[in-house]
Amino acid sequence: MALRARALYDFRSENPGEISLREHEVLSLCSERDIEGWLEGVNSRGDRGLFPASYVQVLRAPAAEPLPPARYANVPAGGFEPLPPPAAFKPAAQQPPAAAAAAAAEPFPLPPAASGYPFPAAPYGGAYQPSQGSDDDWDDDWDDSSTVADEPGALSGSYPDYEAAGGGDSGRYRLSTLSELSLGSRGGGHPASHPQPPGGGGGPKSSATVSRNLNRFSTFVKSGGEAFVLGEASGFVKDGDKLCVVLGPQGPEWQENPYPFQCSIEDPTKQTKFKGMKSYIAYKLVPSHTGQQVHRRYKHFDWLYGRLAEKFPVISVPHLPEKQATGRFEEDFISKRRKGLAWWMDHMCSHPVLAQCDAFQHFLTCPSTDEKAWKQGKRKAEKDEMVGANFFLTISVPTGPGASLDLQEVESQVDSFKAFTKKMDESALQLNHTANEFARKQVTGFKKEYQKVGHSFKCLSQAFELDQQAFSASLNQAIAFTADAYDAIGDLFADQPRQDLDPVMDLLALYQGHLANFPDIIHVQKGALTKVKESKRHVEEGKMELQKAEGIQERCNIISFATLAEINHFHKIRVRDFKSQMQHFLQQQILFFQKVTQKLEEALHKYDSV
Fold it and tell me: Is 486 inside a domain boundary?
């Protein structure tokens, strides 16, 4: 007979790989060994997966049949510490008074990996890889190999000594969400990653907690969104770090930058160092709010992008133009990259949050020759504590009557935007392919065909010149002029994509980067909504205090406000950009055909004197 277990409580699965349990249900176990407080087995409905070990009681019967093979049999036996026997979790009402008192007096021992899984959570931004290759080498005097950013996970557990004494700077505010979900209030001392059975620990309502995601590599976990929603973020927020969301005509939006500015990118120049042994391209940046020019290499742009992508999990940081291993000093490539960086800079300056970020301002204003100031600003950005879960502490949302969000409406809006981004991404890919193919035909096919027509007219003119009659000379000249006109029209076709189609494709490339960002942003918001639904279910079942569930919902509202504000900003900037670009495209098309018409009219007038 296979090893079996009986469910002591109901359990509803929330994540892939989990299965739901019903009280008194008998399950078949795949293995007696638990995986960080979870067992694997098959329920009465035939579903196979993981469930909390503390929710079941193993039925110790002689096993005459071999156990089904465990999917997680390759987990090292020493990697996880077993939890206490599930019987100890029996509600006090079901135990004899003496046993209940003993269980309450003797708390369960915490396993060594009490904070969760035995591996550390990866910092947010795992999809972003630091630049490699000759285009991005950190080998000049601006590099400081010792400036490595602290892990986001290490920031929430260490604070200055003056915090305990109540000290601090006058522009800094101590914000914490630890009060309701810290380890001390989890009931029975359970780690956050272990769902606690109803009835274990303290009172009947304070015993249940919202479970952690089983997938510790999801964007919701890596971004710090889960830790924030569960109330585990704590830190000091300076006045300058606050990000305000306000209610606008179209809903939540980021508070506008009170001092808007723009920044031009001009004069890419080839420079050398190490006595000419290494070459690179430097771009001149001139911010309008300082008027002081600075020079930056592509690797400096890339460093900034990496810092911003890690710091702002619910903001779409525009992608940089692609790198290129060869041909980096060719004129066409340099020109194309400068245009891409100009689009990138425009979106950075137009974003109310990104434009005011300290790292971005340091990038724009630090003098190119001041190596010490650059290193200090770089080190400060890499050791920023307001990342991960702490980042969400910096977001200030509207309060008061009419400022609350309806979660169902938020979910509907986010789902609609998700469908929109998918359709826009497909359309952008199609348009980019069509425009690229059309440009190729203009540069090669159309030019060749028009010049072939011109060459044919030229041959006809040369044939007519064999006739030495004076009255035919003007006709020969007119046909020769027509041949030259078609040659010129072919050149116009070859040059035209630079004027109209290339700018459209540059814009599409920028927006494809934005569209690639939003699935992660939406995932963070969806994860927060899932935690709210779970907490509401616990309240309805009498397993969680209403105050705890309200705290989770308030923190979910902060993420929802920020997500909707970012969606609103995306739509605003999209309308602005595509309106401007389509106007430019049509204007260039009109100018092009006017040039073609002018060439044909000039050729036509040559026949008036024949």
Answer: yes
Residue 140 φ then ψ, to 5°: -100, -175
| CATH of residue 525 | 1.20.1270.60
Long-range contacts of 317-323 (CB under 8 A, 24+ apart): 317/354, 317/517, 318/343, 318/344, 318/347, 318/348, 318/510, 318/513, 318/514, 319/344, 319/510, 319/512, 319/513, 319/514, 319/516, 319/517, 320/344, 321/509, 323/131, 323/133, 323/135, 323/136, 323/298
Sheet holding 251-254, edge to edge: 251-254, 243-248, 395-396
Q: Do residues 371 and 463 both lie within one domain?
A: no
Per-residue pLDDT, 12: 83
Minimum mean pLDDT range among 81-85, 173-177, 401-405 = 81-85
- Do 439 and 319 fall into the same domain? no
Residue type for 85, please? P
The CATH number of whichever domain residue 363 belongs to comes to 3.30.1520.10
Please tell me the total count of domains within the chain: 3
In a domain, 286, yes or no: yes
Same-domain status, 551 and 515: yes
Give CB contacts under 8 A, 24+ apart, made by 102-108: 107/188, 107/189, 108/83, 108/84, 108/188, 108/189, 108/190
AA identity, residue 42: V
The structure tokens listed for 595 are: 């040039």
Task: Answer yes or no: is 238 within a domain.
Answer: no
**Residue 457: which of 418, 490, 414 has the closest Cα?**
490
Using DSSP bridges, classify how beta strands 172-176 and 38-42 pair: parallel, antiparallel or unpaired.
Answer: unpaired
Residues 411 and 526: their CA atoms lie apart, in Å, by 8
CA distances to 165, 344, 424, 436, 506 from 431, rounded to whole Å, are: 61, 20, 10, 8, 12
Burial environment of residue 400 by CB neighbours within 10 A (0 to 12, 13 to 18, 19 or more): exposed
Residues 382 and 499 in one domain: no
pTM, to two decimals = 0.68
What confidence tens digit (pLDDT) does each residue in 480-529 have?
A: 999 999 999 999 999 999 999 999 999 999 999 999 999 999 999 999 99
How would you class 271 by CB atoms within 10 Å of its CB: exposed for 0-12, middle for 13-18, buried for 19 or more? exposed
Is 186 flagged in the annotation as binding? no
337 annotated as ligand-binding: yes
Nearest alpha-carbon partner for 192 in 341, 332, 389: 389
Question: Please, what sign has the CA dihedral across residues 252, 257, 258, 262?
Answer: negative
Judge contact between 323 and 135, C-beta under 8 A. Answer: yes
186: in domain: no
Domain carrying residue 462: 407-606
